[in-house]
């Protein structure tokens, strides 16, 4: 059985972007009320007294947009300071990163994954739901600053949407050649905007690899990480290319993670909504952390049964929460 030691923590469900595939403009989302968010103290208590004792050592801060969380630098510092923390990372859209990168690094964050779906500012703005002013330049500066500060590995996440950014696959892959940037292609999943998914469909990692192979060749490779990416490299490139193939391949048998939502629900599987645990309500009701540890241990024991099993049908379900709400 896989060791489950990787917790993806959603710090906030809100976002300053409206990516078409995640939380499209106009989508009715029930945001978590401020009083329902786990406070910093509650989150740190859960990490220290529940998650670390049951074996979690790798933590990723995500959202929504984690840089919108007030006090995020202090939270990073606190989590990085736990002696048991072996890996602390963040997934961000980088819009606010340029001015925060150094502080985050100084607080103990060492690696960061940044979403970048296009190198064309107009297409980028179309994907992220431009509200009047272009955002691409801020994101690009955030990436450059993160690189300059020393985040390593620095990964760039791309979701390819047919007819929108699929003509940029080679340009995006080429970012890995001259710099130690690790570009990852994520297969579009029907969570967040099933209409767009229905209209556009998705491109398989193997199709992308074939394009890249024909242009430069492709060899297997490796990069430090806790996630499900299959890693390759353009021969001679400084960085790597990762493929996260949740639609075309099954990586559930090597699943090593659970997710904690910003309002304190522990979710054992991204694609199966059963057996979630409301840790915040329990904590606020005075349930002891010893009892919560017991409950989480029980969930860990059950996780192989909970892990998603619907791949063979080629479909996944309909979900009540989007990636931004779950901690994608
Ligand atoms: N189906 C599924 N997709 C996942 C899972 N974990 C990550 N993904 C997909 O991979 C995307 C990128 O994940 P990241 O936030 O960059 O984290 P990661 O790939 O775990 O990061 P590393 O530790 O750097 O390997 C997510 O947004 C999801 O689309 C998972 O457990 N199940
Ligand atoms: C939900 S976002 C949260 C962190 C941050 N806001 C960001 O965009 O990096 C995390 C990742 O989820 C991915 N994602 C969101 N919706 C998706 C979908 N429907 N299919 C595949 N990936 C998705 C995004 O591309 C992003 O890399
Ligand atoms: S993918 Fe990230 S940046 Fe885009 S809307 Fe979702 S949470 Fe926001
Ligand atoms: S779908 Fe569920 S079981 Fe599969 S990798 Fe993601 S979280 Fe793990």
UniProtKB/TrEMBL annotation:
<dbReference type="Pfam" id="PF04055">
    <property type="entry name" value="Radical_SAM"/>
</dbReference>
<feature type="binding site">
    <location>
        <position position="8"/>
    </location>
    <ligand>
        <name>GTP</name>
    </ligand>
</feature>
<dbReference type="InterPro" id="IPR007197">
    <property type="entry name" value="rSAM"/>
</dbReference>
<dbReference type="InterPro" id="IPR010505">
    <property type="entry name" value="MoaA_twitch"/>
</dbReference>
<feature type="binding site">
    <location>
        <position position="252"/>
    </location>
    <ligand>
        <name>[4Fe-4S] cluster 2</name>
    </ligand>
</feature>
<feature type="binding site">
    <location>
        <position position="19"/>
    </location>
    <ligand>
        <name>[4Fe-4S] cluster 1</name>
    </ligand>
</feature>
<dbReference type="Pfam" id="PF06463">
    <property type="entry name" value="Mob_synth_C"/>
</dbReference>
<keyword id="KW-0411">Iron-sulfur</keyword>
<dbReference type="InterPro" id="IPR000385">
    <property type="entry name" value="MoaA_NifB_PqqE_Fe-S-bd_CS"/>
</dbReference>
<feature type="binding site">
    <location>
        <position position="189"/>
    </location>
    <ligand>
        <name>S-adenosyl-L-methionine</name>
    </ligand>
</feature>
<keyword id="KW-0949">S-adenosyl-L-methionine</keyword>
<feature type="domain" description="Radical SAM core">
    <location>
        <begin position="1"/>
        <end position="229"/>
    </location>
</feature>
<comment type="pathway">
    <text>Cofactor biosynthesis; molybdopterin biosynthesis.</text>
</comment>
<keyword id="KW-0456">Lyase</keyword>
<keyword id="KW-0342">GTP-binding</keyword>
<feature type="binding site">
    <location>
        <position position="60"/>
    </location>
    <ligand>
        <name>GTP</name>
    </ligand>
</feature>
<feature type="binding site">
    <location>
        <position position="22"/>
    </location>
    <ligand>
        <name>[4Fe-4S] cluster 1</name>
    </ligand>
</feature>
<feature type="binding site">
    <location>
        <position position="155"/>
    </location>
    <ligand>
        <name>GTP</name>
    </ligand>
</feature>
<feature type="binding site">
    <location>
        <position position="115"/>
    </location>
    <ligand>
        <name>S-adenosyl-L-methionine</name>
    </ligand>
</feature>
<dbReference type="InterPro" id="IPR013483">
    <property type="entry name" value="MoaA"/>
</dbReference>
<dbReference type="InterPro" id="IPR050105">
    <property type="entry name" value="MoCo_biosynth_MoaA/MoaC"/>
</dbReference>
<feature type="binding site">
    <location>
        <position position="255"/>
    </location>
    <ligand>
        <name>[4Fe-4S] cluster 2</name>
    </ligand>
</feature>
<keyword id="KW-0501">Molybdenum cofactor biosynthesis</keyword>
<dbReference type="GO" id="GO:0006777">
    <property type="term" value="P:Mo-molybdopterin cofactor biosynthetic process"/>
</dbReference>
<keyword id="KW-0004">4Fe-4S</keyword>
<feature type="binding site">
    <location>
        <position position="269"/>
    </location>
    <ligand>
        <name>[4Fe-4S] cluster 2</name>
    </ligand>
</feature>
<dbReference type="InterPro" id="IPR040064">
    <property type="entry name" value="MoaA-like"/>
</dbReference>
<dbReference type="GO" id="GO:0051539">
    <property type="term" value="F:4 iron, 4 sulfur cluster binding"/>
</dbReference>
<dbReference type="InterPro" id="IPR006638">
    <property type="entry name" value="Elp3/MiaA/NifB-like_rSAM"/>
</dbReference>
<keyword id="KW-0547">Nucleotide-binding</keyword>
<dbReference type="GO" id="GO:0046872">
    <property type="term" value="F:metal ion binding"/>
</dbReference>
<feature type="binding site">
    <location>
        <position position="64"/>
    </location>
    <ligand>
        <name>S-adenosyl-L-methionine</name>
    </ligand>
</feature>
<comment type="similarity">
    <text>Belongs to the radical SAM superfamily. MoaA family.</text>
</comment>
<protein>
    <recommendedName>
        <fullName>GTP 3',8-cyclase</fullName>
        <ecNumber>4.1.99.22</ecNumber>
    </recommendedName>
</protein>
<dbReference type="GO" id="GO:0005525">
    <property type="term" value="F:GTP binding"/>
</dbReference>
<feature type="binding site">
    <location>
        <begin position="257"/>
        <end position="259"/>
    </location>
    <ligand>
        <name>GTP</name>
    </ligand>
</feature>
<feature type="binding site">
    <location>
        <position position="21"/>
    </location>
    <ligand>
        <name>S-adenosyl-L-methionine</name>
    </ligand>
</feature>
<dbReference type="GO" id="GO:1904047">
    <property type="term" value="F:S-adenosyl-L-methionine binding"/>
</dbReference>
<dbReference type="GO" id="GO:0061799">
    <property type="term" value="F:cyclic pyranopterin monophosphate synthase activity"/>
</dbReference>
<feature type="binding site">
    <location>
        <position position="91"/>
    </location>
    <ligand>
        <name>GTP</name>
    </ligand>
</feature>
<keyword id="KW-0408">Iron</keyword>
<dbReference type="InterPro" id="IPR013785">
    <property type="entry name" value="Aldolase_TIM"/>
</dbReference>
């Amino acid at each position: 059985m896989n060791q489950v030691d990787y917790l993806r923590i959603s710090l906030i469900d809100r976002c300053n972007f409206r990516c078409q595939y995640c939380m499209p403009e106009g989508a009715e989302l029930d945001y978590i009320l401020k009083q329902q968010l786990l406070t910093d103290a509650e989150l740190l208590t859960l990490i220290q007294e529940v998650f670390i004792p049951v074996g979690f050592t790798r933590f990723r801060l995500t959202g929504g947009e984690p840089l919108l969380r007030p006090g995020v630098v202090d939270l990073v510092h606190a989590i990085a300071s736990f002696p048991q923390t072996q890996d602390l990372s963040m997934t961000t859209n980088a819009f606010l990163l340029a001015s925060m990168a150094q502080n985050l690094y100084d607080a103990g964050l060492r690696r960061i994954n940044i979403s970048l779906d296009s190198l064309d500012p107009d297409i980028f703005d179309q994907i992220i739901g431009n509200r009047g002013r272009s955002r691409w330049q801020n994101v690009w500066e955030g990436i450059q600053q993160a690189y300059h500060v020393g985040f390593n590995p620095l990964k760039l996440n791309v979701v390819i949407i047919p007819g929108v950014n699929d003509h940029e696959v080679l340009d995006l892959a080429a970012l890995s050649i001259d710099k130690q940037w690790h570009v990852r292609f994520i297969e579009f999943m029907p969570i967040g905007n099933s209409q767009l998914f229905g209209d556009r469909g998705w491109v398989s990692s193997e199709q992308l690899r074939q394009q890249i192979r024909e242009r430069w060749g492709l060899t297997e490779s490796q990069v430090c990480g806790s996630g499900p990416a299959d890693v390759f490299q353009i021969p001679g490139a400084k960085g790597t290319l990762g493929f996260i193939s949740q639609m075309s391949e099954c990586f559930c048998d090597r699943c090593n993670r659970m997710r904690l939502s910003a309002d304190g629900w522990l979710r054992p599987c991204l694609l199966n909504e059963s057996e979630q645990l409301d840790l915040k309500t329990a904590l606020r009701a005075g349930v002891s952390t010893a009892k919560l540890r017991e409950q989480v241990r029980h969930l860990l024991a059950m996780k192989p049964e909970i892990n998603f099993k619907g791949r063979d049908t080629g479909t996944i379900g309909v979900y009540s929460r989007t990636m931004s709400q779950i901690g994608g």
